[in-house]
Give the backbone structure.
Amino acid sequence: MPMEFSSKLLENAVDEVSMLPGIGKRTALRLVLHLLKQPTGQTLRLSESLVALRETIQFCSNCHNVSDLALCEICSNPNRDGSIVCVVEDIRDVMAIENTSQFRGKYHVLGGKISPMDGIGPSDLYIDSLVAKASSGVVKEVIFAMSSTMEGDTTNFYIFKQLEALPVKMTTIARGISVGDELEYADEVTLGRSILHRIPFENSLKNSE
Amino acid sequence: MPMEFSSKLLENAVDEVSMLPGIGKRTALRLVLHLLKQPTGQTLRLSESLVALRETIQFCSNCHNVSDLALCEICSNPNRDGSIVCVVEDIRDVMAIENTSQFRGKYHVLGGKISPMDGIGPSDLYIDSLVAKASSGVVKEVIFAMSSTMEGDTTNFYIFKQLEALPVKMTTIARGISVGDELEYADEVTLGRSILHRIPFENSLKNSE
């Protein structure tokens, strides 16, 4: 059903908002009408924050994480162990791992995963800079922390091949039954892997390294 | 779970976007990261369209619909019948009714409905201007087209009381079984009303007035 707008300004705003992923015309109209009912300041703050972000944001020159500085807080922190590098797909994964407070190394944000279907090849990702980092001699261990999907596995394997010849230990985060999950509802592959990669019981008693 | 942002700019943008209704921090982050991957132009167009809308939008002085002019296209259209006024809650209802192409009168947008729970009383809505319009002698019929909820019914009744003494016909849109709906799944109140307010069969053969 086409929408007939009584205002060109309204139509433009709805069109722009509905270009965001997962936001249709109807939701966009609801959001825009909400802004119209709020003080003008809210719309100005929203717009300014988006423009400020888009125009002045930087990406860390070492790990490619979003940062306000040329080197992000994690990479410039002397208490973080630069010999362990955790490879992740995007900055949301960095935030998720940081929230666990279990990792004291540094990150390497690839900026996506290899996905021929979406036209994303190895050259579209920050793989060269990872190889350079691993070749420098500082890095002792690379942890793969990609999504457990076909694209994630492909990316892991591609990087594995690139780093194979280097004196670097390569590990991957543990896959298994989620804490709090019922065994009977777990999928077979996950349950299978969790048995295959079982750990000494006393290790499971530790909550952190 | 609190989010730890690696960038203050990113945090600001996520905070502002998550002030929109129905958008949480996680969705806001997804939207903002999407904008970071798009050309800067998209963010600029989005921001400009919102600011332009918020700062220069007008509301029709006659019907209170959103408009780029002091008098909206419907109110200034000489082919629309000003003697019939359809009272709706907000401009989305105007769009919905316009889409049916079944109404050739004009509208009156209340800007909400009476809802003591949300602190919205009659004085927060454009009821006075409706009473003034109805008193002018031009309006012959007022159609109530509010949502079929407690608040909608309260609003209808309040307006009915205000207009009661005036020589104006008051009607309400028909409630009944939706076109295409199975009778057995209809709720009792709707089905009851649809029997009570049955119409001559030959009238049902007409698709428009």
In short: The first helix of chain B runs from residue 8 to 17. Residues 178 and 205 of chain B are 16 Å apart (CA to CA). Chain B touches chain A through 61 residues (CB under 8 Å).
